[in-house]
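Hi there,

I know you've been waiting on this one. I reran it after we fixed the sequence typo, so this is the corrected version. Both the input and the resulting structure follow.
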Amino acid sequence: MQLSKQKWQWMADKNVDKLEPLFDNKSKFVHMSGTWKKEEELDIIKTGRIWYKNTKVHDVAVEIFGKTAIVWNRITLEAIVRGNEAVTEFTVTETYQKQGKNWKLLALTFSSVRDTHKIEK
């Protein structure tokens, strides 16, 4: 849960130096406008094509399956997307895998939801 929270802050800060080792080399990112790999996501963050300005996390659920962790966040994302301000409700699914002593993000998927959506724990 703490790593997920840090990731949101690193994304807001455009801190690709912290994100690069967190994202697995084969990681995928599913957004409303497409799906892309690690290098594209890092470039999007670095250049500000999407600026994850502020993430308000409302609910979090975490399940551990051996060396795999799935984190579900219900969020309100305040972002600048290609120069336009956007405030959107999402459930974000993050899949992590323990590799050695570190957790690596394998997948991050944004699902658009209503603000009344709840994550069952």
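Quick highlight: The mean pLDDT is 93.

Best,
R. S.
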